[in-house]
Amino acid sequence: MTRYDAVEAASYRVAREISLTGLSSWRDAVAPYFLPGRSVLDLGAGTGLFVRAFGEWFPDVSVVAVEPSADMRAASGLAMLAGDASAVPLPDASVDVVWMSTVVHHVRDLAAAGAELRRVLRPGGVVVLRSLFRERHSGIGLFRFFPEAVRALASFPTVDEVADGMGFVVERLEAVPQVTASSLAEKASNVRWEADTLLRSLSAEEFSAGRERLAAAALVEPGPVVDHLDLLVLKTVGGV
Predict the structure, then answer these.
(1) Considering only 3-12, 24-33, 35-44, 48-57, which range has the smallest mean pLDDT?
(2) Domain limits of the chain?
(3) Looking at the predicted structure, is the pLDDT value of residue 9 above 50?
């Protein structure tokens, strides 16, 4: 899994974190899996956005955060364990849900990750992903301003590649809206090259041109920025 350094972690908090109000559709989407008394592994927890969100949304759920980057863990200000998808520092059959938000495209060995997730999941447990998949990117407004970033999708897996590669079956797949920013002006002021896998594929000239397009649109287009990421829920083969 990708490890962010201190500068990238700081940029991530500015450019990628979303208000809990903006994420309210995600609260509703995942509520069926975050039932009272359940234990959740937030794998690749980053700067802790969803650790904080789950604490507010689902106070009767226990969340354990695992993040490979020491700088991300430090930036979060939260208690997190060091680990990644191939080495989760938890006992066998210890969680009911594995949550992975914009993480799976960083996983290099899906088969190893799948085996590790099956190890830590209790019978009947599920993997819940919030992600962008290679064949399902029309809901991401970033490509309007940075069209060259589409080439970075070559490194993103498809839904079937994730499910088959990890050895799970798809239980649910749907696009979930989120208010990524209150306005294009806010988005323009917060965009950071180093904080986004898609933008990192751009040259300095391409990034600068895209930021200029974004800033120009912000002058004439009011209203919030709404993007759609996919909710993918995976279950073990046979549901056990």
Answers:
(1) 3-12
(2) 6-137+156-180+227-239
(3) no
